[in-house]
Amino acid sequence: MEEIGEFLSKHGIKILRGGAFKPRTDPKSFQGLGVEGFKILKKIKEKYNFKIVSEIMDPRDIEMAHNYIDIFQIGSRNMYNYSLLKEMGKTNRPILLKRGMSATIEEWIKAAEYIEVAGNNNIILCERGIRSFDDYTRNLLDLMAVPIIKEKTNYPIIVDPSHGTGRRELILPAVKAAMALEADGGVMIEIHSNPEEALSDGGVQSLDFEEFRNLLTKIN
Ligand code: PEP
Ligand code: MN
Question: Ligand 1: does its nearest atom lie under 6 Å from the Cβ of 99?
């Protein structure tokens, strides 16, 4: 995290996301470091002045998370977790609400409304791809959600090309498309100093530093 924090800060990145409570498909996969992970994120935040995003899966962790995390992420698997949405509505932190992997746009907007009705309208939507019949990409990045959300709601929307494609060579085209569609919040990209060693989503998905630098050059 130290290495990644230093690298991102040098490149002008202001918001850093790291997972500490990880919703893994396989219970035997790395589950994240929990609170210890939050503490590491906080150290990096203080050193480089980032805003920190991290996922919270359990309403019982929300209060504690206020000490460490600036933007609370609700992951794809929890978009339909209405008890969690309601509890997030009682907080005053911005909420990053990822689209459920098989959620319609309407269901996703209603999920955001759960948070808003409970008292928090500071919500950022994140298009992260939906399931399709074709496993060529990890998910099918539904970019038309961007103009649709902009038309139908006042929530800012960002795009997650990392989970949306699952393939590092598709990150740049997906980012260009998101920019062309004026995704107002921008994009969220997974990187790692050594993707082969990443404990989650490294392999063919995360960009290494060199690839990230290239991407910045190209989009600038
Ligand atoms: C993540 O953003 O780390 C994540 C687990 O993605 P998603 O919830 O979109 O599957
Ligand atoms: Mn991931």
Answer: no
> Ligand 2 centre and the CA of 18: distance in Å?
9
Tell which one of 77, 108, 190, 205 to mutate to probe ligand 1, the residue whose CB is within 8 A of the most ligand atoms: 77
Rounded to the nearest angstrom, the distance between the alpha carbon of 73 and the centre of ligand 1 is 9
- Split at pLDDT 50, 70, 90, the class of 8 is very high
Mean pLDDT over residues 55-77, rounded? 98
Question: For residue 111, how many other CB atoms are within 10 A of its CB?
Answer: 24
Any idea which ligand is nearest the CA of 79?
1
User: Cβ neighbours of residue 119 under 8 Å, at least 6 residues apart?
Assistant: 89, 90
Q: How far apart are CA 69 and CA 75, in angstroms?
A: 15
Whether 185 shows a pLDDT value over 80: the answer reads: no
What pLDDT is recorded for position 184?
83
